[in-house]
Amino acid sequence: MSAASLGTVRALPSSTWRTARWLVGNTLRILAVVGPLMLVLGVGVAPAVVALVAQAGQHQVEAPGSLWSFAVEQAPGVFTLVIAAMTISHLATHLAFGMTRRSYAAAVVLSVVAIALLLALLVPLGYVLEAAHFRAYGWAHEAPDSLALALLTSVLRTAVWGLAGALTAAIWYRFGGFAGVIALPLTAIYPIVSAGMWIERADALGAPEAAMLVGLIALLGAAYAAVVAGVAVKARSV
Amino acid sequence: MTGFGVELHALSVRFRSTAALDGVTASVIPGTICGLLGRNGSGKTTLLSTIAAFRRPSGGSVRVDGEAPWENPRVLAGIALVREGGDVPDVRVSEVLRYGAAMRPTWSGEVAERLLGRFDLRSSQRVEHLSRGQRGALAAVVGIASRAPLTLLDEVTLGMDAPARYACYDELLADYLVHPRTVVLASHLIEEVDRLLEHVIVLDRGRVLVADEADALRARGVRVSGEAERVDAFVGDARVLRRETLGRSAVVTLYGDLGSDARARAREKEIEMHPLPLQDLFVHLTDRPGSAEGQGGAR
């Protein structure tokens, strides 16, 4: 092929890097709205509602300890759905723009870990803001002893949830609806594994548990790459 | 020589018990515009999807620029398969163009911007809000602006109105002339794309029916008319695709080489000879025996 005949041929970074940037960028746009919303609802509105309800019922407020911890526990489940939908819808685009399945799988793993890290940054921020809000009500606040450990736990937990979602969606896309249903329990892999490791608190993660979760992330990533490696792009419905 | 060539050898693709492609052997010459014609379900989309490594072949081989395309970064970077509606991200049109620029090493932003204006697309529009025709137009913008060495356009103009379709053909041809590459164009609208085609592959039920230069194919399709006995004598052993009679006159559609002196012989016998448009030839070649169109005295 004569490159000159096709106009300017630009040198581009690796397709894994380009796609990871695109996926993270797209998620950041959602996060730019959802993140502050989570903070406002979880740290601002929820305690205010608790106080209002107590006031209306003329009850003595029982200090909730932390409402933000509930949001932190639940968020990865939503993240699973977002990752599952996004990674499947973008696969055909990635291939149609001349890139390999291999680079897509690597980009998805990289993106999920990067997004998990960005999401996890909200965790200590939420605890700090919640502590201030609780002080205003005169409530006792319960936060993890180590916010750094809470952040690490959140990264690992969210990454496991996200990759489990991506893997389940890929199985559904490649092997069909029945296989997708069979694969659904994969999305519950974190609760299963964490129960097995007796991880009860956000800051209770020890080095062996962290290593196991890192291993699980690697395993899910490898399984995702294996499923995507043979996937045929389906006909498009317009 | 420019663009990627394609070599298909005994290529087959099966979906369970159905053979979508069955022993397809053909080639696409680098730097040409090749028409991929066939009726619904003939295997056009499956063939293009296999060339672009959207799916694996069940048997046989595909070579693009001399190499198998499956998970081949060099080859895939040079292939653009544009399906109806386009496989573009569901974002704003301007972001689709930014995506193209980020992912395609041969992307022309200048061409993309110009084509948006030509197709009346606004860069602020969201893809999910585009009509079917507008989505087709955006797919065409992506296909042309990608300037991929192998551009595969699969029914891209379906859903577009006539002015948009002609704009698409004109722009494709104009950019192809300045920046030659290999283009494979699958379309049902044969009359419209006829003028673009240098080579033609006709698929029928997953097999190659004809693969030839477009001019050679056009030359083989002839319609002769005149007094029935004279026409029959003139036709001789040539392959008759269709024969219609009206009183003592006959109109016969032929396919094949009638010899270099055919015109002189026709004049001598007062027989009129007309070249057959590619679309008519396609209709006759892919006619199903026993179907409504197949009636009428074809032999």
Give the overall shape of chain A: elongated
N- to C-terminal distance of chain A: 33 Å
Report the portion of residues of chain B in β strands: 25-35%
Name the strands of the widest sheet of chain B in spatial order.
5-6-7-3-8-9
Q: What structural class should be given to the helix and strand makeup of chain B?
A: alpha/beta
Q: Give a quick account of the main beta sheet of chain B: strands, pairing sense, barrel closure.
A: 6 strands, mixed
User: CATH superfamily name of the largest domain in chain B?
Assistant: P-loop containing nucleotide triphosphate hydrolases
Ranges of chain B with pLDDT <50 over ≥5 residues? Answer: 292-299
Major beta-sheet overview of chain A: none
Average pLDDT of chain B works out at 90
The CATH topology of the largest domain in chain B, please? Rossmann fold
- Which CATH class of the largest domain in chain B? Alpha Beta
SS-derived structural category of chain A: mainly alpha
- Helical element count of chain B? 11
Distance, first to last CA of chain B: 43 Å
List the helices and strands and how they pair.
The complex is a heterodimer of chains A (238) and B (299).
Chain A: H1 15-56, H2 68-96, H3 101-120, H4 122-137, H5 147-175, H6 177-183, H7 189-196, H8 207-229
Helix pairs in contact in A: 1-2, 1-3, 1-4, 2-3, 2-5, 3-5, 3-8, 5-6, 5-8
Chain B: E1 6-15, E2 18-28, E3 33-38, H1 44-51, E4 59-64, H2 73-76, E5 79-83, H3 93-103, H4 109-118, H5 132-146, E6 150-154, H6 162-178, E7 182-186, H7 190-193, E8 199-204, E9 207-213, H8 214-220, E10 221-227, H9 228-235, E11 239-246, E12 249-255, H10 262-268, E13 272-275, H11 278-285
Helix pairs in contact in B: 3-5, 4-5, 5-6
Could you provide a short overview of the structure?
The complex is a heterodimer of chains A (238) and B (299). Chain A is an all-alpha fold and 238 residues long.
